[in-house]
């Protein structure tokens, strides 16, 4: 038997957008070829989210995991449809990250060097390791939520995260000793 429709106010919908849109857009910008494509996918995600909220009373934690699963699936679908298109590397959208006019040029240069080192170090990780680190620290998801997004067990996510952080420490130490920092 279908569940009764739950009515949500525009204020609740706006709050949902304010809570999730910035992080989702950042995730999409890293994973699709253009800002326009990322914005289109963001609209698709929120349309699905509004439909989900209308049809089911879902608790906050499950909804958070669910919306990230939808975002991940939208990115996968996007890449399936656009196999022939070249994707943008992170450095090609780097200026978007540094648009703050409050920073002095010296601070921006130092921050740029730090991000370049981080980007180089993250490139040494596998895609699964990078995704887990981005979802955990970039989007503050729990290991259980990450497991749902990437279709792995929570134990596997915890172990991969632990090993990845250990590897990152080793890589940073190696780079520091090698004079790369």
Describe the structure.
- GO terms for molecular function: DNA binding; sigma factor activity.
- It holds the Pfam family Sigma70_r4.
- It comes from Ktedonosporobacter rubrisoli.
- This protein has 181 residues and is mainly alpha-helical.
- The protein folds into two domains: 1-85, Rna Polymerase Sigma Factor, Chain: A; 104-181, Arc Repressor Mutant, subunit A (Orthogonal Bundle).
- Helices cover 73% and strands 0% of the residues.
- α1 packs across α3 and α7 packs across α8.
Task: Sum up the structure in keywords.
181 residues, Rna Polymerase Sigma Factor, Chain: A, DNA binding, 8 helices, disordered N terminus, mainly alpha, Arc Repressor Mutant, subunit A
Overall SS class: mainly alpha
Largest sheet: none
Segments where pLDDT lies below 50 for 5+ residues?
1-7
- Percent of residues in beta strands: under 5%
How far apart, in Å, are the first and last alpha carbons? Answer: 61 Å
SSE layout and pairings?
Elements: H1 10-31, H2 35-55, H3 60-81, H4 94-97, H5 105-123, H6 127-138, H7 143-150, H8 154-177
Structure in a nutshell:
The protein has two domains: 1-85, Rna Polymerase Sigma Factor, Chain: A, CATH 1.10.1740; 104-181, Orthogonal Bundle (Arc Repressor Mutant, subunit A), CATH 1.10.10. It is 73% helix and 0% strand. The protein is built from eight helices and no strands.
């Amino acid at each position: 038997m279908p569940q009764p429709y739950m009515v949500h106010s525009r204020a609740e919908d706006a709050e949902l957008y304010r809570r999730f849109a910035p992080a989702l857009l950042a995730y999409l910008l890293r994973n699709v070829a253009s800002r326009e494509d990322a914005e289109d996918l963001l609209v698709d995600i929120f349309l699905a989210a509004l439909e989900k909220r209308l049809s089911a009373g879902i608790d906050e934690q499950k909804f958070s995991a669910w919306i990230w699963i939808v975002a991940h699936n939208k990115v996968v679908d996007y890449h399936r449809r656009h196999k022939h298109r070249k994707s943008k590397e992170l450095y090609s959208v780097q200026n978007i990250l540094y648009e703050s006019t409050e920073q002095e040029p010296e601070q921006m240069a130092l921050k740029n060097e730090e991000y370049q080192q981080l980007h180089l170090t993250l490139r040494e990780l596998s895609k699964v390791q990078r995704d887990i680190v981005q979802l955990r620290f970039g989007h503050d998801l729990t290991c259980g939520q990450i497991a749902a997004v990437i279709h792995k067990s929570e134990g596997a996510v915890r172990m991969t995260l632990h090993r990845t952080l250990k590897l990152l420490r080793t890589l940073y130490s190696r780079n520091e000793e090698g004079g790369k920092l």
